[in-house]
Write a structure and sequence with these properties.
Blueprint: H1 2-33, E1 44-48, E2 51-54, H2 55-70, H3 78-105, H4 111-119, H5 125-130, H6 141-149, H7 158-185, H8 191-200, E3 203-213, H9 226-235, E4 241-242, E5 245-254, H10 259-278, H11 284-291, E6 301-302, H12 311-315, E7 322-328, E8 331-355, H13 366-381, H14 386-393, E9 405-408, H15 416-424, E10 430-435, E11 438-462, H16 467-483, H17 487-497, E12 502-507, E13 513-514, E14 518-519, H18 521-529, E15 539-541, E16 544-554, E17 557-558, H19 561-585, H20 591-598, E18 602-609, E19 614-615, E20 619-620, H21 622-628, E21 642-643, E22 647-658, H22 665-691, E23 694-696
Antiparallel strand pairs: 1-2, 1-23, 3-18, 3-22, 4-17, 5-12, 5-16, 6-11, 7-8, 8-9, 8-11, 10-11, 13-14, 15-16, 19-20, 21-22
Helix pairs in contact: 2-3, 8-22, 9-19
């Protein structure tokens, strides 16, 4: 007991401190790493006027959009994914921005309105499109009512989900129409303003003027300072607004096949070519599909449609002859002439298909399908209406609306037996052909331009970089990246070694592609995580390796001088030249005085209209046009010096005359209102978006 008491006396304070530290550590752990931690990564991909979009919700929106864009296909590539992300984001923006407007105005769509869009006298165009009869092209109200009545019997719930989606789409369309109607009703061009416009445009002016071009003062004589340039930017901020972007310079080490790679490809190709020389036409398809990167096309191609290198040489080959090797893009090719014959380059046919049973379980048993097509053939030969039989019997829904008609060419993708019959039989022939789809009754209706067509087999191999070639390019890129870890060294070695530097400017946070590289999302993300002057490690993209340096970081706001220096210098230099010219001219009493002071001639211009800022001899000079109609000067006085786009001008009006274009105020108002209404449809959402507070954080997640 005495030992225990000693421990208590000696270590009590220590134990209390340890317990306190444990409690504090636990609390800090929850604060910094718990669900609601201070440093927990945000899952918000964006905000609009304070409304957040969670990453999980955004992902679901993207998936829904991808499914719609694929339209039942299994293909999903980077381009579709990128488009789906943008579409889903724009959908979120539109919903938040527009719903805010609807709520402010108290706009809504009632259940009765939705019902009326289905059952009213004037159904929604969305509804009529869904229930249009394919035969008549008219709205099928009975079919719509039948579908609506059967929804409760659908145990899967798919029909109800589809109806709810359709109703939501109609509701969005209706409320949008209401909003646009309110906005458009506010468009008004008053009569007094139209009359003023008519008055202003009712005269044409003839002027004399002296032009002193800015080019008469050498650029080298105008000194510019950064403070002057920055002052100009600050005074014209609206002209220099910029969005967030990055600029990178990069070196690309391309993986290009070497001479040894080409030799290896040729060796394989020549070995296969020995068999190509002797193989029979019956075995050629299997051989080509087994050995060539260009699959065998078991059909004829019209001479005019043959689009390959060495076309004339190939067309002159006798049957069985082989030509090559030649290059076709990145392929080395041997071509063998299989056969040639005279075929029309275009054939119009019509057919009736009776489908036979397939792996999916559709169609009729073969014997029943054959009996039916034979019966239809007898009816056609006996004078029956072909189109009526198509409407009644054909299983080809694609050609049913056109009476079973198709246009067939030697290069058209049709089932082989169908295509061979269409191209090789004469006009007026009627016959039955069996394909994988079933039995076809085909009639040749017309043929055009019979000419030579050829069947050619292509033995092709790509020249691909070997592993050694690829490794060599990577080693060069890795060495460059290791030796150039700062911007200054990066630039110095590029110049010393004569490397081809490329520039990727104005990279936005959600960009996925870079010209010259292609898909390069990793590089874009790096540019937004790096600091100005940082040099990247090696990026791997398809057949090249890239090393980049971040050369500019632009935040949203007013552009920095270094990014807009050329345009700002041009404007400030022009203003300084204008000040010098105006000081020389001062307040002229006549054009002759200006001519004497500037050594520039007096010139004339006619038919100047107040509504047109162009002068035939001067170009775009709205200030000169405005001065010509300044009442305080009229025809008695010369104008003050005018700072124009190309120089400084002094103007004197010689005369005014009627324009000869009578207008009425109603027409002028109507034209203006129509132009504004048209602009509203195109620009209204863009304006509302600019007025909203949008925060886009997607670049941190993708």
């Amino acid at each position: 007991m005495s030992v225990i008491q000693k421990i208590r006396d000696k270590y009590a304070v220590v134990i209390v401190v340890v317990i306190c530290l444990a409690i504090v550590s636990f609390l800090l752990q929850d604060a910094f790493f718990g669900k609601n931690s201070l440093i927990r990564r945000s899952t918000v991909v964006g905000k609009v006027n304070g409304e957040e979009l969670e990453f999980s919700d955004y992902q679901q929106m993207i998936k829904t959009t991808e499914d719609r864009m694929r339209q039942g296909q299994n293909v999903l590539n980077d381009q579709i994914t990128e488009q789906a992300r943008e579409s889903a984001w724009n959908q979120f923006l539109s919903k938040q921005i527009m719903e805010s407007q609807y709520n402010k105005l108290g706009l809504a769509v009632t259940d009765e309105e939705i019902k009326d869009q289905f059952t009213g006298k004037n159904p929604s165009p969305i509804v009529t499109q869904q229930f249009t009869d394919e035969k008549t092209g008219q709205f099928d109200r009975a079919r719509m009512q039948q579908v609506l009545a059967s929804i409760n019997q659908d145990k899967t719930g798919q029909m109800r989900a589809g109806l709810l989606q359709l109703e939501d789409y109609i509701a969005q369309s209706r409320i949008s129409q209401k909003y646009l109607s309110l906005i458009k009703q506010a468009v008004y061009y008053p009569k007094w303003l139209a009359e003023k416009q008519i008055q202003d445009n009712g005269q044409l002016a003839s002027i004399s003027y002296v032009s002193v071009p800015y080019a008469t003062i050498a650029d080298s004589t105008i000194k510019l300072s950064d403070s002057e340039l920055n002052s100009y930017i600050n005074s014209h901020k609206e002209l220099f607004k910029t969005e967030e972007s990055r600029k990178v310079d990069y070196i690309s080490f391309n993986v290009v096949p070497s001479a040894a790679d080409t030799a290896a490809a040729l060796k394989v190709l020549f070995e296969a070519k020995q068999e190509l020389d002797t193989i029979s036409n019956t075995d050629i398809a299997a051989f080509i599909n087994r050995n060539s990167d260009l699959p065998f096309y078991d059909s004829y191609v019209a001479k005019s449609a043959l689009m390959v290198p060495q076309k004339d040489t190939l067309l002159s080959l006798p049957n069985g002859a082989v030509f090559g090797p030649y290059y076709d893009n990145n392929l080395i090719v041997f071509a063998k002439m299989i056969d040639r014959k005279l075929l029309p380059d275009s054939v119009k046919v019509r057919h009736i298909l009776i489908a036979t049973q397939n792996q999916q379980g559709g169609g009729l048993p073969d014997s029943i399908a054959k009996a039916r097509i034979d019966s239809i053939e007898r009816a056609v030969r006996g004078g029956a209406d072909f189109k009526a039989l198509v409407e009644q019997y054909t299983d080809d829904v694609r050609s049913k609306p056109t009476g079973g008609e198709y246009d067939v060419t030697p290069s058209t993708d049709f089932l082989k037996e169908f295509k061979d019959f269409a191209l090789e039989k004469s006009k007026g022939t009627i016959g039955v052909v069996k394909t994988l789809a079933g039995y076809h009754l085909i009639e040749i209706m017309d043929q055009k331009n019979v000419g030579q067509a050829v069947k050619i087999a292509y033995l092709a191999k790509p020249v691909s970089p070997s592993r050694e070639t690829d490794s060599k390019a990577y080693a060069e890129a890795n060495e460059f990246a290791a030796k150039n870890r700062d911007w200054k060294t990066f630039e110095k070695n590029i110049q010393q070694n004569g490397l081809n530097k490329r520039i990727a400017d104005n990279l936005r946070p959600m960009d996925h592609t870079i010209p010259g590289i292609g898909q390069a999302r990793e590089l874009v993300r790096w540019a937004y995580d790096a600091k100005k002057g940082d040099v990247s490690n090696v990026f791997t993209f398809d057949n090249n390796y890239v090393v980049a340096v971040l050369t500019a970081v632009r935040e949203e706001g007013v552009a920095a001088l270094e990014d807009v220096r050329p345009s700002v210098e041009a404007e400030v230099r022009k203003n300084k030249k204008a000040a010098q010219i105006i000081e020389k001219i001062q307040s002229p009493a006549s054009l002759e005085a200006v001519q004497k002071a500037t050594n520039q001639p007096v010139q004339t211009a006619d038919n100047i209209s107040f509504g047109t800022p162009f002068v035939a001899s001067l170009g775009f000079e709205p200030r000169v046009v405005g001065a010509a109609f300044n009442k305080s000067w009229g025809t008695a006085k010369v104008s003050a010096p005018i700072e124009g786009n190309a120089g400084v001008y002094v103007v004197k009006v010689n005369a005014f005359q009627p324009s000869g274009q009578p207008q009425d105020a109603k027409s002028v108002s109507r034209v203006y209102e129509q132009s504004l209404l048209s602009a509203l449809d195109q620009q209204l959402f863009s304006v509302l978006k600019k007025l909203s507070k949008v925060e886009d954080n997607r670049g941190k997640f993708f």
